[in-house]
Recover the amino acids of this structure.
């Protein structure tokens, strides 16, 4: 799947602006005894390193995981590279060796600037296994929104942020009825995966409406 | 991070949204799919609607649902909102948002082949053929344990329809046939494989061709000597399809952990500075 790989608006001149951490348990292994508990522990570790960093909806979603159905994927958006380093270093201490020994193939994928991912790998002792690079859009590209709008629309990896909604929100900010912060929270609200980045969305809304 | 939902005047936004859209509709700036609406109204009165619809007897015409639709399939007709069933991808965004004050948006049990729309467009739906939600594939996310893409391979991901335009299976079929005619099959554990009716040509089951989805991801594996052939196929498809698509490539890292993308594709091929990177946490665990 290509999910987070098409996100527009990241720039090497702004390192560390966004790093999505996604964990996946292959569908064929989800019935293994004990693997559910390992995923619950991972969600708790994510919370530990991001609780005071995320909007409440992200915290609530992670906190509810032990009580819900098996989450095949867990995804969170960080805007602080150091926190991702801390999370991975924490996992290496005890969680990872224990779960490797038990044969639980829980993978972690970082989505962000490749230089950011490489730096984190160097600092934490992990090594890149596979890359997914985006070569951009083809076909009826004349029907696409502006590159500025795409920075917001591509934040949903399933294409659920409507272009009309973005236009509406931009209009409401310009008329003073909403703030960039409120608009950023609004587009993150329907995200079912947890990869919305409210901070980058806020900056983008502010830039597009001259509210910086 | 700031931005607690407690601070959001969501109702204020939605009221303003409704006003904006009502003004645009009044000014004739919005299309109204009249035939589709009449058809929906007729079927609604007979109690036999095979797709998500807005109950015309309870809709108050506030328009709050209109800008939420990723496919722009909702519009106002007279003083009621309606969903154009041809353009609706059954993603459920309008329903999940819970913004209809009259609870008029009505989801129904979808029959085949319309159910494909929901399976491919609603991230909470599960693909029966793969047991996976979303677009129904694990891609590179589990590649450190599953070894779907190996050194010497290029994993090819063509995602049709996203962003904004959506896609019909006629275009999905064009891509499948193009790759098939060049010697490449969709990988077995991709949900599109189950829809292929003719393994020799890549033709899909004819009954699915007009179904509309927000997006789907086609995956192929080609040798890493075929980068030029890939770009040739992609440029041909770019002229042939009636929607937008993205191209992504999966590459195994070299021994030092680096990508050899530029070695394979050269210095001039566009590539985003951001990527998905599997960091090998599950290597050698199957």
């Amino acid at each position: 799947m290509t999910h987070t790989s098409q996100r527009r608006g990241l720039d090497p001149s702004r390192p560390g602006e966004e790093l999505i951490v996604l964990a996946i348990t292959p569908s064929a292994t989800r019935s293994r005894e004990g693997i559910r508990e390992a995923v619950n522990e991972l969600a708790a570790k994510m919370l530990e390193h991001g609780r005071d960093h995320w909007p409440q909806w992200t915290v609530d979603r992670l906190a509810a995981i032990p009580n819900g159905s098996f989450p095949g994927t867990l995804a969170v958006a960080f805007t602080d590279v150091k926190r991702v380093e801390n999370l991975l270093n924490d996992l290496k201490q005890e969680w990872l060796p224990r779960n490797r020994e038990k044969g639980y193939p829980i993978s972690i994928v970082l989505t962000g600037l490749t230089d950011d991912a490489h730096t984190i790998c160097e600092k934490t002792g992990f090594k890149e296994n596979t890359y997914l690079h985006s070569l951009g859009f083809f076909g009826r590209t004349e029907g696409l929104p502006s590159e500025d709008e795409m920075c917001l629309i591509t934040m949903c990896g399933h294409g659920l942020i409507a272009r009309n909604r973005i236009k509406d929100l931009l209009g409401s900010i310009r008329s003073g009825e909403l703030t960039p912060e409120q608009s950023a929270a609004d587009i993150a609200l329907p995200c079912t995966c947890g990869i919305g980045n409210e901070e980058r969305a806020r900056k983008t809304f502010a830039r597009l409406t001259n509210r910086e | 991070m700031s931005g607690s939902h407690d601070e959001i005047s969501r109702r204020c936004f939605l009221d303003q949204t409704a006003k904006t859209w009502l003004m645009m509709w009044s000014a004739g700036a919005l299309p109204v799919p009249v035939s589709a609406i009449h058809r929906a109204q007729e079927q609604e009165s007979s109690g036999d609607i095979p797709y998500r619809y807005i109950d015309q007897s309870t809709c108050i015409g506030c328009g709050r649902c209109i800008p939420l639709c990723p496919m722009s399939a909702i519009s106002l007709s007279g003083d009621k909102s309606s969903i154009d069933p041809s353009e609706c991808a059954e993603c459920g965004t309008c329903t999940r948002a819970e913004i209809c004050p009259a609870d008029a948006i009505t989801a129904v049990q979808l029959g085949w082949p319309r159910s494909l729309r929901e399976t491919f467009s609603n991230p909470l739906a599960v693909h029966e053929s793969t047991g996976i939600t979303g677009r129904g594939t694990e891609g590179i996310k589990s590649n450190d344990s599953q070894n779907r893409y190996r050194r010497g391979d290029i994993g090819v991901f063509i995602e049709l329809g996203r962003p904004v335009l959506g896609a019909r299976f006629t275009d999905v079929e064009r891509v499948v046939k193009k790759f098939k005619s060049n010697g490449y099959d969709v990988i077995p554990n991709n949900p599109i494989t189950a829809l292929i009716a003719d393994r020799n040509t890549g033709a899909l089951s004819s009954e699915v061709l007009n179904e509309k989805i927000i997006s789907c991801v086609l995956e192929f594996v080609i040798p890493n000597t075929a980068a030029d052939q890939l770009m040739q196929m992609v440029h041909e498809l770019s002229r042939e399809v009636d929607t937008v698509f993205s191209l992504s490539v999966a590459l195994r890292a070299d021994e030092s952990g680096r990508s050899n993308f530029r070695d394979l594709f050269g210095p001039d091929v566009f590539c985003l500075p951001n990527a998905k990177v599997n960091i090998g946490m599950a290597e050698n665990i199957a």
